[in-house]
Amino acid sequence: MQKSGSRAIVDIFIAFQRYFTSSTSRHALAKPHRPWSVGRLQCCQIPAELKTRFASTSTAPIQRESLRPQTHYDLFPSSLPSGAPPSGSFHIDPTVLRKEFLQLQAKAHPDRHQGIDKAKAEAASARINDAYRTLLNPLARARYLLSLRGVEMGEDESIAGSPSDSGEGMDAGLLMEVMEVREEIEAAQSKEEIEGMKAENEERKTASEHRLDKLFRAGDIEGARREAVRLGYWVNVGTALADWEKVGDGRVSEHD
């Protein structure tokens, strides 16, 4: 019970951070709030804006779970004011996101807190880190958005409509293209060739991200799933290109 209560307090702390950094919070701070208590802790009264999102820490466990922020997007109100697609864009400015991430981490850094506040800060810091890493990576972001809609994707999922498709609906054109690119990587003799392939692959990934934005905005979840699989292929190609660069000189020497 004590552990669950602490987790609830952590989540309240995160929500309050969002509230007091918003434009409306500056007006709210000018008005004193009557203290209320959670166990032995004294807190300021929850603003009306947050009352509908929080329940008492004395409620049942299933209600305490509702204290968690709804999505990773909720942790970054300045960077992502419109929230997740379809209301917001799939695209995220990494510079703006990192700026808010550092601000949040500066406030939640465990070294700045003691006792129960330190444990609370550690939990908040871990939550912020996880959200930041997920949102920063386009493929991880796409998979996360799909999970919010009940679609879980495995790391090695094919482009078939579902695991039970038995290969039906496979994008043969895409698979052929990926195989050809991998053969070109294996046959490459110079870093210049690899640099050209890297540029082409970055274009493929960018195009895939643009399609994901349109699909999520349109609410086409199956289309978004298939496009996320496609993006995964190009991410893997990028990894293969990076691996070639690490041992490229050795490969060239072997062919001399």
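^ that was protein a. below is b, sequence first then the tokens
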Amino acid sequence: TFLLFSQSLPSQDLGFVDPKATVLHLEIAGRDLTITQSPTLLSSNREGGTTGAVVWKITPLFAEWIASSTNCLFQNSIIDSSSTIVELGCGISGILGLALAPRVANYVATDQRYVEKLLNLNIHCNISQSIGLRERKPTINHHQKATKPGRSTNLNFLTLDWETDSALSLPSLLIDSKRPEDHTINIVLACDCIYNETLIAPLVRTCAELCQGVEAKPSKMPTICVIAQQLRSPDVFEAWLTSFSEVFRVWRVPDSLLSDELNKDSGFAVHLGINRSREMQ
């Protein structure tokens, strides 16, 4: 924490790209995206939060890096064409899914239900082939299974509220298969979800549940949590790192493996985590 926050961090304000714009035009991973967002919803008094209503600065930068075939995750086959990725707190933009879904087998974006309408719009407006988002609520009480998507329908949405929902049953909802290996979640992504101390415990618990809920053999690679965040408050960051480190072994991705836009002078950081209980299997 001291090393990260002892640097001269650039002023990012709260970290929005443009909180007043209703439409953003972005180029990510060689693609031109038109993203509709909702400044009105952002400034509303909706109970349960509104931060997912607009695009945050780190999101397009992180999407550009993680979708690149030259990054360390692709280079070491941690992510490949057979991967299943679950994103936490996807917001309305769908940017990470749009960048990564063409390169993996299955991408599941999750968030509270209020983002669904705009997320659906942004996916349909920006994906090369029409995709219908299949919404399933991942609760233990409903043993629903999502239909296995094909190549053109591998980007899906599930409602998941960290504070009220359990993620333990989510792996079995992803793919309609009796083979345990098909239920494996390879990567859990969270981008700029750490800004409030009250959300730290639910976020860490959800990450742990997604890893524990996977029926994995000791010989298989454990689920990797990839956490990207803007460095705002040293107290919030340290509280997250302390809580996350209790459940996960944690590494910060070094500058040499990041893009210039995400290195230590950018005010952003990317960490990887492996569940401690899974690591010991």
